[in-house]
Amino acid sequence: MVMERRTVDFWFDPACPLSRITASWIVAVAEQRPIDIRWRVMSLSILNEGKDVDPEGDEEGYLWIPARVCAAIQTAHGHAALGRFYDALWTAEDGGRREWIGDIAEALSGAELPGELAGAGLSTDHDAALRASHGEAMSLVVGEVGTPVLAVTHPRGARHAFFGPVITEAPAPDDALRLWDGTLLVASVPGFREIKT
Fold first, then answer.
1. Tell me, what's the pLDDT at 2?
2. Which of 163, 7, 11 lies closest to 82 in space, CA to CA?
3. Considering Cα of 52, then 135, then 42, then 20, what sign does the dihedral take?
4. Residue 4: its pLDDT value, please?
């Protein structure tokens, strides 16, 4: 049976460790299934604006920095470049996975992107683009959600969007495919919102 090619729009906050695990999962799935991934930025800083207590504990506003850099990359260099940067940001020098994001300038270099993009993190120049990308993700899902948000577009145009899946460790290859198939199945049911454990 020939599987139809799908596009997965993957919105992430670059500093969220759980989003990074989900990103690793979707990349593993794309190695085994006909999937094109479009990397997109969203922001926990925007998500938490106006809350009395920041759930991320980011009173200093550090999380704006990598999100703004991602918005600058997405705007000027596109989704594939954003994916390369995101991967480099979470890859350690030995090629393993980091526990927390690395140096932005080093990640830009590793992704073969201009080093001056690091300055975007301390500027509001790309905030409108960041808010627009974030807003698009939020427009696709219902209720209070976090990161990541995925939208799967089928060849005939049907689109299913959902928050997550949020996973705490990268699944084995067979489990990765089972999670993908199950996620598509439940997300295709009209009115489906979320599953929590």
1. 66
2. 11
3. positive
4. 83
**Residue 162 and residue 81: Cα distance in Å, rounded?**
24
Short-list 146, 145, 143, 152, CA closest to 187: 152
Residue 157: which region, alpha, beta or left (left: phi > 0; alpha: psi -120 to 50)?
A: left
Parts of the chain with a pLDDT under 70? 1-2, 54-55, 57-58, 193, 196-197
Please tell me the pTM assigned to this model.
0.92
Q: Which residues of 141-168 are buried (b: 16+ CB within 10 A; e: fewer)?
A: beeebbbbbbbbbeeeeeebbbbbbbee
User: What is the token pair recorded at 104?
Assistant: 């932005």
Query: Rounded to whole angstroms, how far apart are CA atoms 145 and 46?
Result: 12
Joined tokens for residue 168: 């705490």
Phi-psi region of 163 (alpha: psi -120 to 50; beta: other; left: phi over 0): beta
Look at residue 58 in the predicted model and tell me its pLDDT: 67
26: nearest Cα among 145, 177, 136, 146: 177
Please name every residue paired with 61 in a beta bridge, in sequence order, or none if there are none. none
**Do 184 and 160 form a contact (C-beta atoms < 8 A)?**
yes
* Sequence-ordered strand ranges (E) for the chain: 6-12, 35-41, 149-153, 159-163
Closest to 49 (Cα-Cα) out of 130, 113, 153? 130
